[in-house]
């Protein structure tokens, strides 16, 4: 993504995990990044990778706000070993990445973000990690609620969670995300006329994420 992008090989339950780490842009006077953001990509069987434009947009937003951003390939994608596991193994991949790039013992702030299938997996990681007090922010974009059983967002995580969806998403209908969010009374930010991949609207998506991160301090 930039000159400060570092390629990593991490260890996962199915073997090696290919990842990239984008260095944070530090504000004047900041001695260290705000934390580490782990970002999950779309469906592995439909071309989802760490190079997806929405995933890169999420990484840029976090980097701009002073976070180190880590993108990784799920099992069976790129240089990551293993085979597609319908979200269960992919959740274990995500949790393994978290523990290696932001170990619990280090006490770093963590953000979790995902797009489409990646948002579904991220929802379950959020449910698992939030009770441990490790997660500071969450961003779910194009959440695949019509295709998978997305986990509810913990009630006390609502103010720290941004959910974004395109009005005209024809891959995951907005109605499906609203059906998931409604019982939780979880707000959903809708991008008018937006499709699943937010063509022509990635700058707006980035700005929404930046605004959320800056508002949370």
Overview in brief:
GO terms for molecular function: hydrolase activity. The chain is α/β, with parallel strands linked by helices and 217 residues long.
Number of helices: 5
**Major pleated sheet:** 8 strands, mixed
Strand content: 15-25%
Number of beta strands:
8
Shape: globular
Structural class: alpha/beta
**Helical content, roughly?**
25-40%
Distance between the ends: 25 Å
What is the residue-averaged pLDDT?
95
How are the strands of the biggest sheet laid out side by side? 1-2-4-3-5-6-7-8
Low-confidence stretches: none
> Helices and strands, in N-to-C order?
EEEHEHEHEEHEH
- Specify Rg, calculated over alpha carbons: 16 Å
Organism: Acidovorax facilis
GO molecular function: hydrolase activity
Keywords: Hydrolase
Protein name: Alpha/beta hydrolase
């Amino acid at each position: 993504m930039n000159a400060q992008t570092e390629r990593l090989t991490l260890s996962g339950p199915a073997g090696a995990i290919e990842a990239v780490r984008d260095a944070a842009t530090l504000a004047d006077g900041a001695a260290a990044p705000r934390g580490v953001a782990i970002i999950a990509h779309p469906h592995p069987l439909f071309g989802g990778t760490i190079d997806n434009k929405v995933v890169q947009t999420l990484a840029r937003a976090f980097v701009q706000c002073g976070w180190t951003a880590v993108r990784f390939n799920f099992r069976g994608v790129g240089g990551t070993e293993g085979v597609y596991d319908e979200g269960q193994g992919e959740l274990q991949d995500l949790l393994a990445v978290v523990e290696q790039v932001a170990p619990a013992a280090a006490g770093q702030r963590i953000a979790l973000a995902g797009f489409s299938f990646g948002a579904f997996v991220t929802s379950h990681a959020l449910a698992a990690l939030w009770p441990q007090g490790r997660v500071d922010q969450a961003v779910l974009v194009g959440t695949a609620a019509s295709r998978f059983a997305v986990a509810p967002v913990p009630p006390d995580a609502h103010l720290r969670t941004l959910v974004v969806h395109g009005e005209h998403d024809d891959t995951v209908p907005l109605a499906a995300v609203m059906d998931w969010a409604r019982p939780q009374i979880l707000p959903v930010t809708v991008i008018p006329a937006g499709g699943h991949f937010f063509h022509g609207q990635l700058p707006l998506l980035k700005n929404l994420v930046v605004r959320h991160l800056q508002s949370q301090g």
